[in-house]
């Protein structure tokens, strides 16, 4: 613990300050000795310091490499691009740094160290708070600040006045002196801060073990029921009961995004608004909520947030006989947010004949760039166009597969479509049928999150800040005043001060106290005609505090 | 789907704000020049005893003849290189500060919103805080000798801001349209500015510490390095600003996670920005521990402080440009 060098012998602090890091390992001690040595080393400040460094260092790969907690898709992309390296990275859990065993080892050690450090400290402090200020040392001359002066007032008066000058101090009389102490809250704040960190860790752990988080995509007009299979991706905790999710339902009535239309910032998103209707349970009343970026929906203890949005172009597909075999809006994923050029796949398994599949690109605001290529120049749908590539054959739908990917191994390309505007129809080659681009809808991606630890975690964090402020700004310090009658009948006053922090500031304050005490005694003796003391006023300038 | 024009930007205010920032940079450059001359050629002057200045043995100011004081300290009294130029430099800096304040206000008026919504505005605001902290330290701790050391990073950052980060005033991206901007972002900016001053004081400390060590070997140290105040004093000032900034940073991170909870559905998601603000927090906690650990007080602890500021800067620049994350305002 505290291996700080303070000039004084602070009994309480020394007693609980075995400095293990300084000493060598145990020599010829039994297992108990080793155990004690390990424990002391673990709970030493130096170890805490090293563990703190490791905590910071270990977090760095978590920011450089894509992480599964942040985006599973980014990890998948990275793995696809660096297949060999990824095997090694994965072996060291570098795509899951913050839930990896080695990172857990660091913070668990840190927190064991913390508990081992703070619990004894809390006990010592609990005793110190109830104890009287320590007895006045015999020789005050060894203290960092000592002032001496003489006065005509009696020792009794001096000690009485000292009490009133030492405002905010706990004062105790010991014979010819008083001993005063203040700043107990620093230690209390330190204990509170470190305990709050422990509580925060526990709250975070509980939240992740019992909560869940899931993503879903809703096209305008679609609904969602909160059950495990309805999610596109779901991350339950280890002990989450996935059969008993809150039974709410959500319907996306409409979605609107707006973008800045001109100037430097053209294409920057300005707002997203999703209008929802929802029911807390199948029996309850339907309610409305406007979901915006900083305005989530809270339903039955679950928070629902707007994560993103995109376009779902609508298509009608007819088979060779002209029968309508497909009529749907298909969500496309955007490549980047400044243009919303989006990719998607249309799968038509039931055509009556061979399966049809299309790989498409959606351009919300299509225009030709300087090289004559068709690109999107704006995220809003000002001039929506689609280009498609058609495939015929077997899509391999027996296996589970992503809705955003088409397996073309068993298929044969039918060629590329012309650029299609809303309403255009492409007659497929080989009499395979036709596809019409009938319009587009927007979709919103939502995230639901149940984390029972949100409020406890916030409480612990707030308590940590409070504790921190106390431990950083309260200055524990002690003052002693001794008054003895001299041979000439005047009283010798000796005032000593000892601060545990910030020697300079404390000395300035101790001197303030001395001057106040001297000033008060002097002005009293001025009122008293029997003494002949110098009536000069004490100066109080000279400190820039 | 709706579209709007690029916000009702007030052009007069926008151009006033752009002029002010140039004026501010020129003013700071002038102040830096004056501070540097003071540091190199001023006369070594004793500083008054005070909040952070040691009370030298038997030298308590305001002590009257009746009171005999003895102070045990192994630290010499605080001295710094001073001249009238320094006082002028301080005035010039204050003028630049006023320009900076006016720049931020006019920019806020131009865009019709809180004036910290993108990288450029963050940098400018953080520098304003750093200069404010310098002025405060000069007034309260007589720490004018930090002037040159603080103004160098300030000018560097402002230069980078104007040259590479500048964007015209305009509206905010949706994620930043929240009352959390004034709370979270202000806390982080103010803490960042204070960390900058602390880091500058820390580097000054390292220079002074080296100079002292060389002097102890009998070498003569010339130039600014030889005329700095005692390392202990610099260390105390540096520590002082951490005491202010660290809780504020802690609060800023907490406020940020409350905001993230509201905006993105989770209060902590290990997004690169979050990872790096956590790293900075841990490093500064390590700094505070190091100061309380035997054998770490002094240059080692100060290096931790400097590394802490580097992580803050890294978070600021690199994370916005190098990593993709939810926190992209670049
Ligand atoms: C999660 C990790 C930790 C954090 C963020 C943390 C943070 C802090 C902070 C901010 C302070 C205030 C420093 C000051 O008073 O100037 C402090 C003080 C202290 N911490 Fe920790 N701490 C952590 C872990 C530990 C551990 C593991 C130990 C025990 C080995 C420990 C022991 C202490 C002690 C003894 C002090 C008082 C130092 C003094 O008297 O100045 N801390 N801690």
UniProtKB/TrEMBL annotation, chain B:
Domain Cytochrome c assembly protein: 116-327
Matches recorded under Pfam families: Cytochrom_C_asm
Superkingdom as given in the UniProt entry: Bacteria
GO MF annotations in UniProt: heme binding
Keywords: Cytochrome c-type biogenesis, Membrane, Transmembrane, Transmembrane helix
One GO BP annotation of this record: cytochrome complex assembly
GO cellular component: plasma membrane
Topology versus the membrane: Multi-pass membrane protein
Regions that span the bilayer: 20-41, 88-110, 122-139, 146-167, 179-208, 241-260, 275-290, 302-323
Protein's cellular compartments: Membrane
NCBIfam families on file: cytochr_II_ccsB (TIGR03144)
Name of the molecule in the record: C-type cytochrome biogenesis protein CcsB
Native species: Nocardiopsis eucommiae
Gene assigned in the entry: ccsB
